[in-house]
Amino acid sequence: MSKIEEKLKQLGILLEPAKAPVANYLGSKRDGDLLYVSGRKSELSGAVGSDVTEKQAKTAARDTLVIMLAIIKQDIGDLDLIDGVVKLQGFIRSSDNFMRQPQILDGATELLIELFGESGKHARTATGVHQLPYGATIQLDMILKMKST
What we know:
With 149 residues, the protein is an alpha+beta fold. It has helices spanning 3-10, 54-76, 101-116, and strands spanning 28-31, 34-41, 82-93, 123-129, 138-146. It has one domain (3-14, 33-146): CATH 3.30.1330.40. It is 32% helix and 27% strand. Strands 1-2-5-3-4 form a five-stranded mixed sheet, covered by helices on one side. Helix 2 (54-76) crosses helix 3. The longest helix is centred in the middle third of the chain and has 23 residues, at 54-76. The radius of gyration is 15 Å and the shape is globular.
């Protein structure tokens, strides 16, 4: 078991088998030392500030990251091949007056730092949007730096 998977286990997080993409794209694609991870949506639906609470959305951001980690593991075989997190981008379905998107995205950011330490710190964008695929509350994508092979 990889060190990252061991940390996930200690946190009580089990990686479920990765679901196939819903359209014609790859779950991730490597280019040199970078791994581009396609956007994945949360299981939670609704807009933050009207249908969904901040706490629920922050948890959904963390849960969505776990879904992404399962895809990454499936694609690269070993999460220990990740050298660090370059960028996390989060889209948060928001009601008209909701403006705390960065605090929602912290759900994913905090887990990345827990798992990868200093190399888990990253650049990021938290954007409020009117709609996401299938009515999801959260959609994340990410760029990772990979260890040289």
